[in-house]
């Protein structure tokens, strides 16, 4: 389990992912990202609205293209971290992801969960995105399955989104539905988004 900041229910989401993915034999490395912004961009599978997810600190090397070799540590921006510290940044590898967020509404726990793909963009596009935000921080470029930008923001209750990879699209679907059922059994109100 990996996270950098405290956000409503992020640790709960991370624990559910780690335990369920471990039981299913899927990757357990998960992290939260800030849901920043997005734009229409070309990638290997076509052209879509591609979100930029970024977190102010570190992401698991298993999420980065080339793992540890594709990761680097940079000094945190003094504006946000005046006493220093380093990041562990990289650009997320392409692959099937499950995204989720757990939040409190009207005194009850809710989970939004859905599918997507982390995609690689051109070097120029990735550089422009890094330069347009905080290049010291790790980033994921993601297409969310069946969820428009406006739909995503209409239900966005926190600044963060939890992400985890799966070995395949079929595995990701299985893990998503299993986690949705687990959350429901634990008393959460679950919304499967866009699938």
Automatic annotation (TrEMBL):
It comes from the Bacteria. One of its GO terms (biological process) is L-fucose catabolic process. GO terms for molecular function: arabinose isomerase activity; L-fucose isomerase activity; manganese ion binding. InterPro entries: Fuc_iso_dom3_sf (IPR038393), Fuc_isomerase_C (IPR015888), Fucose_isomerase (IPR005763). Pfam families: Fucose_iso_C. GO terms for cellular component: cytoplasm. Residues 81-172 form the L-fucose isomerase C-terminal domain. PANTHER family: L-FUCOSE ISOMERASE. This is L-fucose isomerase C-terminal domain-containing protein. It comes from Pacificibacter marinus.
């Amino acid at each position: 389990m990996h996270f950098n900041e405290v956000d409503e229910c992020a640790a709960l989401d991370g624990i559910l992912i780690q335990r369920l993915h471990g039981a299913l034999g899927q990757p357990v490395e998960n992290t939260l990202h800030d849901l920043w912004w997005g734009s229409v961009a070309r990638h290997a599978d076509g052209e879509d609205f591609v979100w930029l997810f970024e977190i102010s600190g570190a992401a698991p090397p298993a999420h980065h293209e080339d793992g540890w070799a594709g990761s680097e540590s940079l000094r945190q921006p003094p504006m946000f971290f005046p006493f220093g510290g380093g990041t562990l940044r990289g650009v997320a590898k392409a692959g099937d992801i499950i995204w989720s967020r757990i939040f409190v509404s009207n005194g009850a726990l809710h989970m939004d969960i859905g599918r997507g793909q982390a995609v690689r963009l051109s070097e120029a596009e990735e550089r422009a995105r890094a330069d347009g935000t905080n290049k010291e921080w790790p980033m994921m470029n993601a297409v969310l399955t069946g969820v428009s930008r406006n739909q995503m923001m209409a239900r966005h209750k926190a600044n963060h989104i939890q992400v985890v990879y799966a070995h395949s699209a079929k595995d990701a679907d299985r893990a998503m539905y299993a986690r949705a059922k687990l959350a429901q059994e634990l008393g959460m109100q679950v919304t499967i988004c866009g699938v």
